[in-house]
Design a protein that fits this description.
By secondary structure, the chain is mainly β. The chain is 0% helix and 41% strand. The protein has one domain (11-166): Jelly Rolls (Sandwich), CATH 2.60.120. The chain contains no helices and 13 strands.
Amino acid sequence: MTTEAKAVINTADLKLDHWKQGEFYESADTSFGKLLGLAGLGISYNEVPSGKSSCPFHNHHVEDELFYVIAGAGEYRFGDERHAIKAGDTLGAPAGGPETAHQIINTGTATLVYLGISTMAKTEIVEYPDSGKFLAKTNRAKTNTAKTNTDSAGTGRFRHIGRPETNLDYWDGEPGA
């Protein structure tokens, strides 16, 4: 554990980032695994308003995720199924294909509060079945919670969002090919 890391963190003391994207996506959240000195385990605290979700329907090819509902009620979209969720429920999202795609939606009237815990792979592929896109990324640098393609200069981090139909030939653009 580094000197900056803490052994105990109370979620009431976390500084949350509030963001909104369109009409359906909104959250006040933060990732805090590094504050605990954890390099291989990601932890996020999420507060999602009624009628909203904090992320699109997606699946991870490498990372496993677990969610623990602290307060509120909602719906857990998992693969082709939908499950009612409430405080005290634990949700699993193992790595896999579209059959493990998942999304938490606040269908209740109060704020939905949950913890997200995940393995932190150095390289990850994420698919988004509803929109047909994918994300290829590395997690070698400081985590950027913004859901964009931007990267700070000099971090060595790779992040690309695309669609399979833009697939190029292996030799495309290579000199002498």
